Each structure stands twice: as structure tokens, then as C-alpha cells.
């Protein structure tokens, strides 16, 4: 919410989505947001792919989406317990598909042009810092996504 307020006057007037932890978006909301966006930001706990239905995602066509930023793979005790319970009901293949590289491949096959994603688990604070750097670099300074990723790598 702080990021939205801080960059409100730049591009965030056109932003749509679900903010906060009051409720989990429905599958229909995920699909609507993904198919109608030019850029998509996921900032959430655990794996992005654990939040949406795989069979619905692979059937989607998302050519309008130029960029997806996945600031996922954050872990807390509660989220780890939730994902562990969820994973019990999944095959090893399904869990493997939820890994970062496989997620990027699937999103790419649906038509997404660029994907920026975490490769390993991180903390809430580290992802908050990444989001601040992304926002400042892309929205305030006007750097390209490549320049922004390069800054994050340092």
C-alpha cells in the first residue's frame, strides 16, 4: 500500500488488482487480471503457481501482457504450513512445475513477453526492498526493465 501511495501520481492510477491480505483472489479474478493487463505484479507468499489453477493457466492466452514481475517465494511459518498441507495432495510433477524456471516457461508459452522472478526463497523484508527498487527505477526514474534488473543484481 505504501508503494501505491508513493507512486500514485505516476502510473498507478491505471492499476487494478487485489491489495492486502483480507481475501484470496478467485480463479476468475486471477484470469481477468492476467488477460487484461499490460504488466502484472505478484507480491505474495510462497510460489505464485500455488495460488492459481495450472490447467486454467495453460489454456490462457495472454499476449497483451508485456511484463510479469513475480516477487514471490517469501516464507513465514504460517505460509510454510499452508503450502506443506497443499503439497501433500499434489504429484511430484505438479510441485516441480511450480518452481521458478518452470513457471517462467509456462507464462512464456501463454504469451507473456518478459518475466522477472525470484529464483530462491527470500524474506518479506528483502522482497519489500526489491519492490521499492523496482518502483523507483521503473516508475520514478524511467529506467528499462533490463536496467532495473541489473541494478537488483548488484
From TrEMBL:
Q: Which domain of life is it from?
A: Eukaryota
Question: Tell me, which GO biological process terms does this entry list?
Answer: axoneme assembly; cilium movement involved in cell motility
Stored PANTHER family: CILIA- AND FLAGELLA-ASSOCIATED PROTEIN 46 (PTHR15977:SF15)
Its recorded name reads CFA46 protein
Amino acid at each position: 500500500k505504501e508503494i501505491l501511495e508513493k507512486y500514485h501520481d505516476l502510473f498507478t492510477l491505471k492499476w487494478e488488482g487485489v491489495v492486502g491480505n483480507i481475501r484470496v483472489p478467485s480463479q476468475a479474478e486471477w484470469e481477468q487480471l492476467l488477460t487484461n493487463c499490460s504488466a502484472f505484479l505478484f507480491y505474495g507468499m510462497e510460489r505464485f503457481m500455488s495460488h492459481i489453477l495450472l490447467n486454467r493457466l495453460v489454456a490462457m492466452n495472454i499476449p497483451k501482457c508485456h511484463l510479469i514481475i513475480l516477487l514471490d517465494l517469501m516464507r513465514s511459518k504460517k505460509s510454510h504450513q499452508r503450502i506443506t498441507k497443499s503439497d501433500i495432495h499434489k504429484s511430484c510433477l505438479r510441485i516441480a512445475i511450480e518452481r521458478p524456471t518452470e513457471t517462467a516457461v509456462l507464462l512464456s508459452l501463454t504469451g507473456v513477453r518478459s518475466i522477472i522472478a525470484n529464483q530462491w526463497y527470500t524474506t518479506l523484508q528483502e522482497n519489500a526492498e526489491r519492490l521499492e527498487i523496482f518502483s523507483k527505477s521503473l516508475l520514478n526514474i524511467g529506467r528499462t526493465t533490463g536496467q532495473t534488473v541489473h541494478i537488483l543484481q548488484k
